TrEMBL record:
Domain HTH luxR-type: 108-165
GO BP term (any one): regulation of DNA-templated transcription
SMART domains attached to this UniProt entry: HTH_LUXR
Superkingdom of the source species: Bacteria
GO MF entries: DNA binding
SUPFAM superfamilies, sorted: C-terminal effector domain of the bipartite response regulators (SSF46894)
Alphabetized CDD domains for the sequence: LuxR_C_like
Region of interest (Disordered), ranges: 175-199
The protein, known as: Helix-turn-helix transcriptional regulator
Pfam families registered for this protein in UniProt: GerE
Coiled-coil ranges (or none): 77-104
The entry's keywords: Coiled coil, Membrane, Transmembrane, Transmembrane helix
Amino acid sequence: MTGSGHNGLHRFLTRRPIGLALLLLFQILCAAVFISDILSSVIGFTGVPLSWQFREMLELGAALGLVTGIALGAWALRLAMAERNAAEERLRRASGAFAEILEERFGEWGLTPAERDVALFAIKGLSTAQIAALRETSEGTVKAQTNAIYRKAGVSGRPQLLSLFIEELMRDDDPLRLGPPGDDAGKLRGRAVGQETRA
């Protein structure tokens, strides 16, 4: 099977519900051939008389169809599991890249340990009251730390702070562009692209 044909069958079986539905219908039709034989033997069900040659060919085709259906079903399941694992790996690498960006930017801005915690909670979407409760401090202290974070980052509020990291992640540390974890060459390529974009 050619690469384009392989990819087309892959998409048909794993990304389109009609593909799996047709595969299931095909297996049901093949199984119906053997079920009709069982019914005719057990309960005396009789259908349209068929020659023994035609019946043999029909049963042989049904058997081959069932085997083919099982093989295609197993292949589709394996492809679906591989896609799920790949998506989980991309998500894991994206999460790791985002954490690296946070640490890098916090260091560049010269945030104190307390300000780092507050900034992280703010990025996660927690309110001032929630951050104060988690850090066991007053809301006034949290507001002062938040204002210091915004000033050091050069932004006016939480939305701009979050947008800095989102833009950085999409531009410089895209896990798909950087290659596998530990790929230093990929990281250098990603940084070069980011520098060109900013230029």
